[in-house]
Amino acid sequence: RRFAKTHPEYFAVDPKGKLYAPDHWSVGSGCYLSEGFRNEIFLDGVSYLKGEPASKRGIMGGSDRNPAPGYRWATVVGQPGVFSVMPGDHHRRCLCTKCKEYMAKHGENEYVWDLVIDIAKRIQKVVPKAKVTGMSYARYTEVPKQALPSNLEVMVAVSGPWAENNK
Length: 167
Fold this sequence. Notes:
alpha/beta; 3 helices
């Protein structure tokens, strides 16, 4: 709701290069290589970790399908001192040209972890004592090729509903 009208480039696109329809369960998935999208996550993380109110970043309560009045941080964002950068279960990979090329070269595992590691490194510079968390889950369960920053705590799921049939 914050960026759909002003920054459609922040959002994942489907195989036809179009944004997911508002009634699609994956609406709101991000384009992980969008610098603007990454910067907003970073700024949200810093604000949350500094204890600022959600209204400062325009974080509205509820979801797109079930909007609730007012501003508030979602409970999945984290706990005091910890900010989560885990993709939602509904996460759909973006299929824009840039993302498709990245995944063709590096794979989806690296695509997801590149985002998580980038945000953790950025946050570490501004809020050094804070932790960032992400989860090894679904299609991104492999240890990433990039080194993990010291402020990143990784949750591990050995499988998930989208990976049950993966060898």
